[in-house]
Amino acid sequence: MQKSTIRLLPINFFLVILLVSCGMNPVTKLEKVPVTKTTFEAPYFSDSKIDYVYKTHISVYGNNLSGIFVIKKIDENWHRVVFTTEFGNKLLDFEISETDFKINSIVEELNRKILINTLKEDFRLLLKKKFAIQNQFATVSEAIYESANGKYYDYLFVSKSGQKLQKITHSTKRKEKFSIHFQSENNIFAEHIAIEHQNIKLKIELNYLKNE
Amino acid sequence: MKIRSHILMLSLLFVSFTALAQEQKMSDTEITAFKQSVNTVSKKIKSLSTDFVQYKHMDFLAKDIETAGKMFFKEPNLLQWQYKKPYNYSIVFKNGKILINDEGKKSAMDVGSSKIFAKLNKLIVGSVSGDMFDDKEFAISYFKTKDFNVTKLIPKDAALKKYIKQIELSFDKQDATVNQVRLMESAEDYTKIVFKNKILNAKIDDSAFTN
Fold first, then answer.
1. Residue B103 vs residue B2, higher pLDDT
2. What's the CATH code, domain A25-208?
């Protein structure tokens, strides 16, 4: 018994190192630079005239789930978010603002507190418009803005060349929690979005669905 | 004078359009005749392939979400939906299993693992073949328009009713097969599927139903 515990120890230690190194705060090794702007406005999901429709693939602990996410800005502070199957059956329908959250409908299979809280946190960051900037960092190709968000920090990675928002990382001072990656042609609309979690095996991929 | 004739023409057009869309309740004899013709045709359906266009309507959206593809059905319960536009997604219902191919990502699940999925599956197969007149499962009402016979089905099962308030099947008056399905989630939100280029009883191999 003791032998096996000892044998497991190095493996556990290795796992801990691996987990920590994957999910480190992204600016740990970067130098601070002078702050060039006090607020940053995220360009995506801000036009109330657009139906943002995305084909979605979710992988969670090896299980796959697909469907369609529809996001619409319904007023200054609120977005409506609906997740349906490819056949159109509504699985989840909620409204979200920076401070509030309201579920319109949810199927029993998805009605789990942990899942709802995770989606709430993910979409609140995805749809957040204004970020107050306190610190700034830089790499060769990117400016990184730090914005305090409760007990967390959001890091906004903006390309120096095209001024495009490419990534937002939600992190504590030490550890990354999740990141949202954006690919956008015009910096108004993100064609591809990936939400990747570090502490749980969850990845949500959104691909813009051309609705013509 | 010219303007007046234009107005007249426009209003005539409008009147004829409303007449087209207008629904009338079927009489009891019409219902019996209609059910009989659908049953006769659906008994003869050994296979069916068709193009389809799906419109997802939600009241808060500016436009319906439009997807399209092909559908294949083979007696008694092989069914495949292939979405081709604007993405590739295929779902096969086969021997109690659901096989999914989502842009190359494959997965499978048992229909039996979810009661509601089994019910939805039966409903989908039924709406394609028209074999839906089950008074135990649905409260059914019958209507007619100029080109279509329309049945409206309200699920009796409480679990199913939570997801689907009403199903509307429009049958082509010419060939008594389903032309359009409308699955209503609420008064405002629905999925409409329109079938085009239907081919009945062409040979479809069982091996076509794979993913």
1. B103
2. 2.50.20
